[in-house]
């Protein structure tokens, strides 16, 4: 029978583990806020919000706060082989490993984690099956969205920046400087992380935001156009029709007809 525990731990800046601990559980700890140090064997790494520590069973380790810090912790023993394999994909040679989530993905992971904790406080007909399903979802999410090195982590922040500033043009030089890379290095890193160019990523984000606003907000077309970076309604309409196959007004009408 699997044993699964999860909790959120909050500590002040002077907190630290008394010594290196080891336990039979697989551990997944995400730093939700603050920064600190993660120590295992003879290695020491700085951790901050968005870093995830994946700790195999019986691996001695410790955490040490540098600022007030908050962790989301999952401890699991007895996972079925197909779920355990998802964890093992994320670690290397059975040793603890740090990976990084972008700010957006950290927020998504935290929402999933909190929803799982809420589900555990409910009266469930099949609590073990429910727990296992959630752990599989969390591990699948980490496999899809984690970044194995600091440069990829930094590049992911430029993706967050693009999504938050859809009204602004793409300036490769500024994004590369933000990531601490040359323009050519940034282009290669970005494509490796997202499978598309920064401009293509911006267009994808604009389309997603336009559809969200068209389907869920009462804003007029001009306001929506301006919110995603088009000063002229005509330019927005032409772009949307070319991308989606119909004008935005027609798309909104279809959505309202199909969902009401």
TrEMBL record:
Keyword Phosphoprotein assigned = no
What the entry lists under Pfam families is as follows: Cupin_2 (PF07883), HTH_18 (PF12833)
Where is each HTH araC/xylS-type domain found? 156-254
Q: Which UniProt keywords apply?
A: DNA-binding, Transcription, Transcription regulation
Keyword Cytoplasm attributed: no
Identification of the protein by name: AraC-like DNA-binding protein
Spell out the SUPFAM superfamilies in the cross-references. Homeodomain-like (SSF46689), RmlC-like cupins (SSF51182)
* Native organism: Paenibacillus favisporus
| SMART domains reported for this sequence | HTH_ARAC
């Amino acid at each position: 029978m699997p044993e699964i525990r999860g909790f959120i731990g909050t500590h002040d800046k002077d907190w630290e583990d008394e010594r290196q601990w080891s336990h039979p559980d697989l551990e997944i700890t995400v730093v939700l806020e603050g920064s600190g140090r993660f120590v295992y064997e003879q290695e020491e790494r700085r951790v901050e919000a968005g870093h995830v520590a994946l700790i195999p069973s019986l691996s001695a380790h410790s955490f040490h706060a540098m600022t007030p810090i908050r962790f989301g912790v999952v401890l699991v023993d007895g996972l079925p082989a197909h779920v355990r394999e998802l964890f093992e994909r994320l670690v290397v040679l059975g040793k603890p490993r740090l990976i990084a989530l972008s700010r957006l993905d950290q927020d998504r992971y935290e929402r999933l984690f909190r929803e799982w904790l809420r589900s555990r406080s409910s009266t469930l007909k099949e609590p073990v099956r429910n727990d296992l399903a959630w752990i599989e979802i969390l591990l699948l999410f980490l496999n899809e969205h984690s970044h194995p090195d600091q440069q990829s982590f930094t590049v992911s922040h430029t993706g967050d920046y693009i999504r938050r500033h859809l009204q602004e043009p793409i300036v490769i030089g500024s994004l590369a400087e933000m990531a601490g890379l040359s323009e050519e290095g940034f282009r290669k890193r970005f494509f490796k992380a997202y499978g598309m160019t920064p401009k293509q990523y911006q267009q994808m984000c604009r389309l997603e935001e336009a559809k969200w606003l068209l389907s869920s907000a009462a804003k007029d077309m001009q306001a929506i156009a301006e919110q995603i970076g088009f000063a002229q309604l005509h330019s927005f309409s032409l772009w949307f029709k070319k991308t989606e196959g119909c004008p935005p007004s027609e798309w909104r009408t279809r959505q309202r007809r199909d969902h009401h």
